[in-house]
Every structure is written in structure tokens, then in C-alpha cells.
Design goal:
Layout lengths: L19 H6 L6 H4 L1 H9 L8 E5 L5 H7 L7 H10 L11 H7 L6 E5 L2 E2 L7 E4 L5 E3 H8 L5 E5 L1 H5 L11 H8 L10 E2 L26 E3 L6 H12 L13 H4 L3 H4 L3 H5 L29 H4 L47 H7 L7 H7 L6 H6 L16
Parallel strand pairs: 1-2, 2-6, 6-8
Antiparallel strand pairs: 3-7, 4-5
Helix pairs in contact: 3-5, 3-10, 4-10
């Protein structure tokens, strides 16, 4: 596999260009940016020298995904990424221009349109950017609908942009009863927040609709997480800027990063198989966190081996369970975070026997790891990519209503 424009493989052999992202996605934790810094820097420089235009706009967001991406640096990439941070044609928090000058600087047909945060549809004024031709605050929803069709690629940055995230969580308020008293209809969530193309509700699509494709022919490329990993953002952008197209899963996530189950690669996996679990969040015993709500069996990403903070740690290392933030059903289906998953209807077994059940494979798919090992999981590259736990990808068992 070729590394961007270098024409070489990691072992020096001949390659093809298409699988750059797949290769770097499989690199040892903490070494991706360092080992392939030349290729990533070359890609990001295209966004700073006028050859490629990148626009990053924000809807309903806490800006954590921006902050996470800003941490994705290493010495040999420092200059290129610093330029990328400052010279992207639009980013409301990073660009030097302000007010109308900032809006004027924005490319109206970007090569890559990056959206962070959910899009409010019932109360569009909950997220606005600049003003329209009438001088009114312009909803981010309008910007998305205008810019997306002219973009070569559209990316959802973080779970809120991808699927609605916590912004679209159920408010629990009755719809009909509130109308006469308050004069407003209460939606499933207050602002009607949605993701770009998907939501976590089976009967509801994102603002661009399920059939949307950018000019590249690809759907929205989703890079979820609350917050998302800086490697996921920078390497996906670098891949697109280099003219490559990442392989996407059923929810339009790059398979290079979102193929593995957290559970399968977790350092505590052995304790799960033996049925040894912690007593409480923060328990320092190192045992499995499934008993305190770990969603590792239902969450797809490689952070168990990629780690965070320049490859130094991950939430499970400090006794915090996976909360499933990479999945379309986050937030509603993954809460309460510290309750065992079977209490939320995610699985069909009891935590007390989960370890024993894992050896025999359950209908819920918790034994996916053991079953795949028996079938040679990991020996064949294609099988490793496609073999998934027996759930619908939303943390629900097969046939369960999302």
C-alpha cells in the first residue's frame, strides 16, 4: 500500500495509493502521526497554499472536537498543522478574520466541508452564523443546505454532527399537553437537533437526507466521537486532500478507525472472559468494567490500541467505562452510563454470567470475539474488516427496535 505520494510501503516495497488511510489506521498506537508525518504534512499543506479549500463550521457544539483536533500535533508536523489551523478558509474559532470579513473569506464551494455540532431544525435560531441578505441571523441549517451540495466532500466531525449526539437526546416532555399551556409543540428534543445524514432514531433521517452525496459521489463521511480522536480527523482529511477515498462502514465511518470493537481490543478483555468485574467506577483492580456500564461490546473504534494524548492512555485505563460515544445511538441508548448494559435493554444476558456466556457466544453478540477467534478472525485482512459483532451497529441486538 502506498503512502500518499511517496511510492513506497512501510517495508519499502511497491504499492498502490488507494489504501493510505487503511495503512495508517492500522499503525501502532501513538506512532501514526510521527511515522507518516511527511505524507500527512504534504496533504495539509495543500489546504494552505490555495490548491484545496477547507471550510469548518459549527452548529450546536461545545467545541470539544475542535479542541481535540488542535492536540493532534507532533514535532515534524507542527508547522504544517499550525498553518492548517490558521489558514483553513473558515473556522469560527481559529481564523484571524472576524465579522463580515470572516464570512467573505469562506469558500462557497469548498473541497472539504467539515461540520461540527448538531443541526437544530425545530429552532434553527439555536445555532446561527453571520447574517442573511435581510440582515437577520442566518441559521447554520441554511449554511449546511447551501454549502453541502457544492462541496467535493462533506465530513461530520464528532457524534453531534454525525448523528445528533447529546444535543438530540430525548427531553421526556409530552408533546400534546404542552401545546395549550405553552403555545409550542415539544419535539423529541427541544431544538429538533439532528445529524447531517443520520440520527439515532430509526424513523428519522439527518438534515441532508439518506440519499445525499457530495460531488465526489460519497455520502457524508462521519468521524464520530464525543469528542472525536484527532488522528481520525487529521488522517481522514489528509486522505481526502491526497485524492484518496476511505472505505466506509454502514454508518459512513472510515473502517480504518471504526472497524474494531472496543471490547475486542480492550486490555481488560481477559477479565471479562473469566467473569471478573469491578465493584465500582474507579476501581483500581484492573478487572472488567462491564458491571459498571461499559459499552465496549457495542462500540466500534480502535482507541483501545490507538489510545489518546499522543498514545499514552484511554478512559478504561483510569477505571472509566466506555460510554459508547462513537455510535449512532449515543446519547439516549447508552444512558445511564454506569448501569450494566442489560438494564438498558442492550443485551439479553446477565452481568453475573457474562464471562461464562462469552465463551459460548450469545445471541447478543457479546461472544463475538471468541467466535471470531475460532473462525480465524484477524488472519485474513478482508475478514477482519467485515466481521462484526451480531448487532445492528447501533448497540442493539439483531432484530431489536432502535
Amino acid at each position: 500500500m502506498k503512502l500518499a505520494d511517496t511510492g513506497r510501503t512501510a517495508d519499502g516495497g511497491p504499492t498502490t495509493r488507494r489504501n493510505f488511510l487503511k495503512l495508517v489506521g492500522a499503525t501502532t498506537a501513538g506512532s501514526v502521526i510521527t511515522e507518516y508525518s511527511t505524507e500527512v504534512a504534504s496533504a495539509l499543506e495543500q489546504a494552505t497554499d490555495g490548491r484545496k479549500e477547507v471550510v469548518w463550521i459549527q452548529g450546536q457544539t461545545c467545541s470539544a472536537c475542535t479542541m481535540s483536533t488542535l492536540q493532534g500535533t507532533s514535532p515534524s508536523l507542527e508547522e504544517a498543522i499550525s498553518q492548517f489551523k490558521l489558514d483553513v478558509t473558515f473556522h469560527p474559532e481559529l481564523m484571524a478574520e472576524t465579522g463580515e470579513s470572516a464570512i467573505d473569506a469562506m469558500s462557497k464551494s469548498p473541497d472539504i466541508l467539515m461540520i461540527e455540532g448538531a443541526i437544530p431544525t425545530k429552532i434553527p435560531s439555536a445555532a446561527t452564523l453571520g447574517r442573511d441578505e435581510n440582515g437577520h441571523h442566518k441559521p447554520v441549517l441554511d449554511w449546511v443546505m447551501e454549502l453541502a451540495p457544492d462541496a467535493e466532500y462533506v465530513m461530520g466531525i464528532g457524534t453531534c454532527a454525525c448523528y445528533g449526539g447529546w444535543q438530540s437526546a430525548e427531553n421526556g416532555a409530552p408533546a400534546v399537553e404542552d401545546f395549550e399551556e405553552k403555545g409550542v409543540w415539544m419535539d423529541a428534543n427541544v431544538t429538533g437537533a439532528k445529524g447531517l445524514q443520520y440520527t439515532h432514531r430509526a424513523d428519522d433521517a439527518g438534515v441532508l437526507g439518506p440519499d445525499f452525496t457530495a460531488n465526489s459521489g460519497l455520502p457524508v463521511i462521519n468521524v464520530p466521537g464525543c469528542m472525536t480522536h484527532p488522528d481520525y480527523v487529521l488522517l481522514t482529511v489528509a486522505t481526502l486532500l491526497n485524492g484518496h477515498e476511505p472505505d466506509l462502514d454502514e454508518f459512513s465511518r472510515p473502517k480504518a478507525f471504526y472497524g474494531p470493537l472496543v471490547h475486542d481490543e480492550c486490555s481488560r478483555r481477559g477479565y471479562f472472559d473469566r467473569g471478573e468485574f469491578v465493584d465500582h467506577v474507579g476501581d483500581g483492580s484492573g478487572k472488567c468494567l462491564y458491571s459498571v456500564g461499559c459499552k465496549g461490546p457495542y462500540c466500534h473504534c480502535d482507541d483501545s490500541v490507538r489510545l489518546w494524548n499522543d498514545g499514552t492512555s484511554v478512559c478504561r485505563n483510569v477505571g472509566a467505562p466506555c460510554i459508547g460515544c462513537m455510535e449512532p445511538n449515543f446519547w439516549d441508548r447508552m444512558t445511564p452510563f454506569y448501569e450494566p448494559a442489560e438494564k438498558q435493554g442492550l443485551i439479553l444476558t446477565d452481568v453475573g454470567t457474562a464471562g461464562k456466556v462469552a465463551v459460548g457466544a450469545t445471541a447478543a453478540g457479546i461472544a463475538g470475539h471468541a467466535a471470531r477467534k475460532a473462525m480465524g478472525y484477524g488472519e485474513d485482512e478482508e475478514d477482519e474488516t467485515d466481521e462484526r459483532v451480531e448487532t445492528d451497529g447501533c448497540g442493539c441486538t439483531s432484530g431489536e427496535d432502535t
